[in-house]
Design goal:
The complex is a heterodimer of chains A (228) and B (54).
Chain A: H1 2-26, H2 41-68, H3 71-102, H4 111-132, H5 136-163, H6 174-177, H7 184-227
Chain B: H1 2-53
The chains are: A mainly alpha (228), B mainly alpha (54).
């Protein structure tokens, strides 16, 4: 069943991304002020929304793990955090390349950028913490607590462009501004790519959950083998 | 500016795809390693159980 879901997710996200790339490069015109480079928005913003979504799911499943003590929630949390970190890195790298042309610099310690980096470091720390604890129950419990507290960093990163107006542009999407800050066709395309990246993220999460189950099976069988 | 603009747009898309491709490759490598580990632990258990019976 899970293999079928995975195949459908991979196929759907692959086709959707291919179709989006065709539209982004061959149908959409250049932006008046920025020229061709603005197209990075179609990967940069959806990557951030995807990683925020992944971290939100990880936070919710961590709470559910602590409440219900069901290891499935711990598996979902680690899978979504790992996928989220990958999309965070995509967001940071694409933003840096975009900034090199628009701002003339690769990086600046602007609040939004700094908090984005902190978020990436915190969630990378979560993944490292899991490697550092051998006992599965202690590992799941400690990492669930860390995951819940880490989400405050996501909220600060998300709200940084409202709270501190510095180098990074303010919100442009209609659901945050009420409209008028971005061309509707561009926004539509941005959400199209967001959908495709969310599907890709879901496919990665399904694969990671399967691997986490295999890892648990290996650990359980090793314990059994030692007991023999 | 315009040619640099286009070049950096290419870098941006290439970087995004490269990061995702490297991660997918690392997932595939991890899956292979886990399958190998699982097989070897299962074989080890079978060996030990057989020896115990003998």
């Amino acid at each position: 069943m899970r293999t079928k879901i995975l195949a459908v997710l991979c196929l759907a996200s692959g086709l959707w991304l291919a179709r989006n790339l065709y539209v982004i490069f061959l149908t959409m015109g250049d932006e008046a002020a920025q020229g061709a480079i603005y197209r990075i928005i179609y990967f940069h913003v959806p990557s951030w929304i995807t990683c925020f979504t992944a971290f939100f799911v990880a936070g919710v499943s961590s709470v559910l793990y602590l409440v219900r003590k069901n290891s499935r929630f711990d598996t979902l949390a680690v899978a979504t955090v790992e996928a989220g970190v990958v999309f965070t890195i995509v967001g940071l790298v694409t933003g840096s390349i975009w900034g090199r042309i628009i701002w003339g610099i690769w990086w600046t310690w602007d609040p939004r950028l700094t908090w984005a980096l902190i978020t990436c470091v915190i969630y990378s720390g979560y993944l490292m913490l899991r490697h550092a604890i051998d006992d599965p129950t202690a590992r799941a419990k400690n990492s669930a607590v860390l995951c819940i507290f880490s989400f405050t960093s996501v909220i600060i990163t998300y709200k940084a462009i409202d709270w501190w107006r510095t180098q990074h542009p303010g919100p442009v999407l209609s659901f945050r501004t009420g409209g008028g800050n971005i061309d509707p066709a561009m926004e539509h395309m941005l959400f199209q790519n967001l959908g495709a990246l969310l599907l890709l993220c879901a496919a990665i999460v399904v694969v990671r959950m399967r691997q986490e189950d295999m890892q648990r099976e290996v650990e359980a069988l090793r314990r059994y083998a030692h007991a023999l | 500016m315009d040619s640099r603009n286009f070049t950096y747009m290419f870098y941006g898309f290439a970087a995004a795809w490269l990061i995702l491709a490297l991660y997918v490759l690392s997932l595939a490598a991890r899956e292979r390693r886990l399958r190998r580990e699982l097989d070897s632990v299962k074989r080890m258990i079978e060996d030990r159980e057989t020896r115990k019976q003998v």
